[in-house]
């Protein structure tokens, strides 16, 4: 039998100051056809009559009389988020004539993409490619019934490089942004919690549900390993399945997740894979479209510019953020021309205020639905096939179809930044350069060599694991053949079975020799001493 009455609680956030929001709640009563027209986390507009319950209705609970027990008897309800997946409510923003003129003025900027990149967290010097990835994630791609449009970004790096400030800036400019800290968050606080109210159970929305159709910025992502499992479904399926206390339902969480994490030990070790540095599972890492690694490396020119930038901020004066060199390592790939175009050449930028920036993003999300041109599709396909061919090893294939979907979403977001309905080949090229920048950080080892056995999802072996695995294989071969002396050719065949190339094999052989596990006997022969590792 269908219910004819439902009790809900609406919460309104009142801005008490710039950094805090105080929630105010009110009980509401839905009747007849209004029952089950909204779920926890929805934005609703209620029209009703404020009434007072019986003043003695609270006697059975705490033996005290209630002076005023107000509730709202709903007459009509408008659910701002109950619409097709193709639309984004952007907190129900409306655009008047002045807003349209301001948006048109922003759109007429000669170098719009560079201008918007520098408007994100201008207090942080450099890191233009990282800011570009965050900007594309804020705009998002074109949603469909089968593919999500939200992109997830993970920033990993040493402390003190501005990761938290960039996340807070994204939360401030997003039409619907939630900022949480991982070391003080729980699984229920991020997803949904079930509470008991009298004889019935009720659900309360968490951070991801409140950030539905927006972005959820999670700082200190490495401090919440027990909460990662609850994010797997939310990041890929864009929903949360609840089966608690007899409540079985599926709630939408269509939010972009921007996360920042510090490596274990306080400093990123390039000799280890990203999964070993963060101690995060591979399924979790595979959900992120872009992974950026920030390293705190001594650089005289960069340190000089950074010191000028910080001192200029303390003087409250407008400065020129002229970044000639950033802290990322160069690779054997071609030079990133997008980085050159995004660098500030010395001009003074009049940054957008947050309300206006928020309006522009909301307008693009609501009215612009880009599609890929044939040329853009061809460029993305060629790049994806080249990655599959280049990063194919015996143990794993680091590049999967998730990278292909990421390229499509980011290319659509690149066109949405400039309010264009068609994503051109230039948009695809810019996104490919951002993706290359991310892949170089993930695949480069401690020697600066591009390690193709590693993976963006954390698979592959670090240097230590490769040495241990080779030593285990030698021990197994020694037990099977009852001998302890092997020729270099035999050891090389074992390494080839493990998928190691020549450079890694000779490096591992030298390491085992220096550590005393293999003794060089001359004439390209090695004797196995012990394998107790």
UniProtKB/TrEMBL annotation:
Pfam family, one: WHD_MCM8
UniProt keyword NAD present: no
Single GO MF annotation: ATP binding
Subcellular location: Nucleus
Domain annotation MCM C-terminal AAA(+) ATPase: ranges: 112-310
Family: Belongs to the MCM family.
PANTHER family: DNA HELICASE MCM8, DNA REPLICATION LICENSING FACTOR MCM FAMILY MEMBER
Record-given protein name: Minichromosome maintenance 8
Natural source organism: Acanthoscelides obtectus (Bean weevil)
């Amino acid at each position: 039998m269908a219910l004819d009455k439902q009790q809900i609680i609406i919460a309104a956030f009142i801005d008490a100051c710039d950094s805090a929001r105080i929630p105010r709640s009110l009980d509401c009563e839905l009747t007849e056809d209004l029952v089950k027209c909204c779920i926890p986390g929805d934005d609703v507009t209620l029209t009703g009559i404020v009434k007072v319950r019986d003043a003695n209705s609270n006697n059975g609970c705490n033996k005290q009389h209630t002076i005023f027990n107000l509730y709202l008897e709903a007459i009509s309800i408008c659910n701002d988020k109950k619409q097709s997946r193709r639309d984004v409510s952007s907190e129900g923003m409306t655009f008047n004539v002045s807003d349209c003129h301001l948006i048109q003025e922003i759109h007429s900027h000669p170098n719009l993409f560079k201008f918007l990149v520098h408007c994100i967290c201008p207090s942080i010097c450099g890191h233009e490619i990282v800011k570009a990835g965050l900007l594309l994630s804020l705009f998002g791609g074109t949603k469909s019934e089968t593919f999500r449009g939200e992109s997830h970004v993970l920033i990993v790096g040493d402390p003190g490089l501005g990761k938290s400030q960039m996340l807070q800036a994204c939360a401030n400019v997003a039409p619907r942004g939630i900022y949480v800290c991982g070391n003080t968050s729980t699984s229920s606080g991020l997803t949904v919690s079930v509470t008991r109210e009298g004889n019935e159970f009720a659900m309360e929305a968490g951070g991801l549900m409140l950030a539905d159709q927006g972005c959820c910025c999670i700082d200190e992502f490495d401090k919440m390993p027990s909460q990662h499992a609850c994010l797997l479904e939310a990041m890929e399926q864009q929903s949360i399945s609840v089966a608690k206390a007899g409540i079985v339902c599926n709630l939408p969480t269509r939010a972009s997740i921007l996360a920042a994490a510090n490596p274990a030990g306080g400093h990123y070790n390039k000799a280890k894979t990203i999964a070993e540095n963060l101690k995060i599972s591979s399924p979790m890492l595979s959900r992120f479209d872009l992974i950026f690694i920030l390293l705190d490396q001594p650089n005289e020119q960069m340190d000089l510019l950074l010191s000028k930038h910080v001192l200029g901020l303390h003087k409250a004066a407008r400065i020129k953020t002229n970044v000639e060199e950033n802290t990322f390592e160069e690779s054997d790939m071609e030079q990133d021309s997008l980085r050159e175009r995004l660098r500030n050449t010395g001009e003074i930028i009049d940054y957008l205020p947050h309300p206006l920036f928020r309006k522009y993003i909301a307008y693009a999300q609501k009215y612009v639905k880009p599609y890929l041109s044939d040329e853009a599709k061809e460029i993305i396909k060629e790049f994806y096939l080249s990655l599959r061919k280049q990063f194919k090893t015996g143990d794993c294939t680091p590049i999967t179809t998730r990278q292909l979907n990421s390229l499509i979403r980011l290319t659509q977001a690149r066109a949405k930044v400039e309010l264009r309905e068609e994503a051109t080949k230039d948009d695809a090229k810019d996104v490919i350069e951002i993706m290359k920048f991310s892949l170089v950080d993930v695949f480069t080892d401690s020697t600066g060599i591009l390690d193709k056995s590693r993976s963006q999802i954390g698979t592959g072996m670090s240097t230590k694991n490769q040495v241990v695995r080779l030593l285990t294989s030698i021990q197994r071969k020694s037990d099977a053949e009852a001998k302890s002396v092997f020729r270099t050719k035999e050891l090389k065949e074992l390494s080839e079975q493990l998928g190691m190339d020549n450079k890694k094999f000779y490096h591992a052989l030298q390491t085992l020799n220096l550590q005393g596990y293999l003794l060089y006997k001359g004439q390209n022969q090695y004797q196995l001493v012990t394998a107790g590792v």
